[in-house]
Amino acid sequence: MTRVAAIDCGTNSIRLLVADVDRSTGTLTDLTRQMRVVRLGQDVDRTGEFAAEALARTFEALDGYASTCHLLRVERTRFVATSATRDARNRNEFLTGVEARIGVTPEVISGDQEAALSFQGVISAVGDAPAPCLVVDLGGGSTELALGESELTAAYSMNVGCVRLTERHLRSDPPTAAELDAAVADVRAALAIATQTVPIGQAATLIGVAGSITTVTAHALGLTHYDPLKIHGATLPTEQVIASCNELIAATYAQRAAMPFMHPGRVEAIGAGALVWREVVTAVAEAVAASGRQLATVRTSEHDILDGIALSLA
């Protein structure tokens, strides 16, 4: 067994997984999973750089993660930064601060690498899913599509995410029809390019991961609190997922904040996240139908890029 720490720093949240990895079987035994919404990517889409207050929030969270890793006697750590860090001109200030806190060199990975790690993490936890699987990792700044069976065969990273679209388009409460149309146009344009690389119509199983999608799933399930055990592996009718997305898109800020499963850090951007997920699910369902089949259900996984990062340390 090797005790590892995986840290995933995205546009909206920073997350930690400490686990024991069995190198002979490639399986993980979780010790702790933690998540903090720090909004590292605040205004990066507009300014092209990290805001000082966003760096401060992220470093504060990372100080806590460093303490956890020390207490749990982690042997190996991998820190991965994704969309916002790829975009920020002042990323070196961030990366230097990360290394000073956790003692390892942080990695700014490409969209394709992000997709591959997400795919690996999901596939390690959903062995019964009919293949090929299309894994969708919907983040704050980007959304990755990854298709494959036991191995990845095609991947693409779209520059659309819940934080990016919220800041770019969805400024009203609730969003206006014109704002929603502009956001939809962005997502559909990105999908048109992505599907030239990833043949989404081949998918036998569609699996969604990350906070926007798990929150949509919690809403569709009618949960009275956020319950990862009920969310992980949830398989819902496609129409129910789309209906849940539509309700979240139309909800006001106050209505979203009052939902008992809603993390406070997701209230502002969940409408955009639901919009992206609705557009992806619809596009996949239409592509599958064009091949003479039906996408009857959509699955959600709580295992994702964090698991992929941890497994890579084995």
Walk me through the structure:
This protein has 314 residues and is of the alpha/beta class. The chain has 2 domains: 2-109, 2-Layer Sandwich (Nucleotidyltransferase, domain 5), CATH 3.30.420; 123-305, Exopolyphosphatase. Domain 2 (Nucleotidyltransferase, domain 5). Helices cover 45% and strands 22% of the residues. It has 13 helices and 11 strands.
Provide tags for this entry.
Nucleotidyltransferase, domain 5, 314 residues, alpha/beta, 13 helices, 5-stranded mixed sheet, 45% helix
Based on DSSP secondary structure assignment, what is the total number of beta strands? 11
- What's the shape? globular
CATH topology of the largest domain: Nucleotidyltransferase, domain 5
Q: Share of helix among residues? A: 40-55%
Structural class assignment? alpha/beta
Radius of gyration: 18 Å
Trace the largest sheet across and list its strands: 8-7-6-9-11-10
Write the layout of secondary structure elements.
Elements: E1 2-9, E2 13-22, E3 27-37, H1 44-47, H2 52-71, E4 76-81, H3 83-87, H4 91-102, E5 107-108, H5 111-123, E6 133-138, E7 143-148, E8 152-158, H6 162-168, H7 177-194, E9 205-209, H8 211-221, H9 228-231, E10 235-237, H10 238-250, H11 253-257, H12 270-290, E11 297-300, H13 305-312
Parallel strand pairs: 1-4, 4-5, 6-9, 9-11
Antiparallel strand pairs: 1-2, 2-3, 6-7, 7-8, 10-11
Helix pairs in contact: 2-4, 5-13, 6-12, 7-12, 8-10, 8-12, 10-12
